[in-house]
């Protein structure tokens, strides 16, 4: 069994920051790198080292988590000349937490394999608060031995941790989750607008849905915000990216996308990108 002693982490935003904090609080020596000095300030006073470059982080780490935004960001931080992979020793392990195309993970894994470094995809769902409370859903894809090696690190913030199959399987599952969530946001918006027309108070309708069979995570999130769509509107570019990736994966695999869910998801994106309703 591989001993996991040194962990690196790149991507200290609202999602990655709490994940990295759970890792260091779990007793793992942690090395971080960030473009902005402010991103590493919360780790002052912990057993965390700040690297000067991603390659320096790679050299100081046995296992590295990547939680940046896009496919291009993941590829850049790992494969650029001073990227993480340039510094990692053979037998290292990279965990891709970002939501990206499965092919991106496979391309990175091919490059990493030439250096003796393994890759798993381990995208997450639940948000920063879930990571801080060790209840983040982690969807892992990769070889059994690689996921087993990553497990002690992942379990500092994951519950549940699901190993879904070979490399890329975690990304497919995460894209499916985000695709359905996007559709459910539109359904929730329509539902609460319909409640208005029926003369039902929105908060009362939300309470019914929370305990009834018609509820959804999207409806709960919307109700918890006081029916303020600002946060969801801010997330629209990420939701749009994930819907696009879902449909690309489906097309590449010859799988017909579900018409009703696709229509709802596209309608959600149009609504969130449009003007704020006066209602």
Automatic annotation (TrEMBL):
Record GO terms (molecular function): NAD binding; NADP binding; oxidoreductase activity
Coiled coil: none
Residue intervals of the 6-phosphogluconate dehydrogenase NADP-binding domain: 6-164
Active site: 174
Domain 3-hydroxyisobutyrate dehydrogenase-like NAD-binding: 168-272
Keywords from the UniProt entry: NAD, Oxidoreductase
Domain of life: Bacteria
Family membership: Belongs to the HIBADH-related family.
Full protein name: 6-phosphogluconate dehydrogenase
Organism, as annotated: Pseudofrankia asymbiotica
């Amino acid at each position: 069994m591989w001993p996991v002693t040194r962990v690196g982490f790149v991507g200290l935003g609202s999602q990655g920051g709490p994940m990295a904090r759970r890792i260091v609080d779990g007793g793992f020596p942690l090395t971080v790198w960030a473009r902005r000095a402010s991103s590493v300030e919360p780790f002052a006073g912990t057993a965390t080292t700040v690297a000067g470059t991603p390659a320096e982080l790679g050299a100081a780490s046995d296992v590295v988590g990547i939680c940046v935004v896009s496919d291009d960001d993941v590829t850049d931080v790992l494969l650029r000349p001073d990227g993480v992979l340039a510094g990692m020793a053979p037998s290292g392990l990279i965990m891709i937490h970002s939501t990206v195309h499965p092919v991106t993970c496979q391309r990175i894994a091919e490059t990493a394999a030439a250096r003796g470094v393994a890759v798993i995809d381990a995208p997450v769902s639940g948000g920063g608060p879930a990571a801080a409370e060790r209840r983040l859903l982690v969807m892992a894809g990769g070889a059994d031995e690689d996921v087993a090696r990553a497990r002690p690190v992942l379990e500092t913030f994951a519950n549940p941790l699901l190993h879904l199959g070979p490399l890329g399987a975690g990304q497919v599952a995460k894209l499916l989750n985000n695709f359905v969530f996007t559709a459910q946001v539109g359904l929730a918006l329509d539902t609460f607008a319909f409640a208005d027309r029926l003369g039902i108070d929105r908060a009362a309708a939300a309470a019914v849905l929370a305990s009834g069979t018609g509820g959804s995570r999207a409806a709960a999130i919307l109700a918890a915000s006081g029916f303020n769509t600002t946060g969801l509107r801010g997330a629209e570019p990420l939701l749009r990216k994930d819907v696009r990736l879902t449909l690309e994966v489906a097309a590449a695999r010859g799988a017909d996308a579900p018409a009703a869910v696709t229509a709802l998801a596209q309608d959600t994106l149009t609504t969130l990108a449009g003007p704020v309703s006066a209602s």
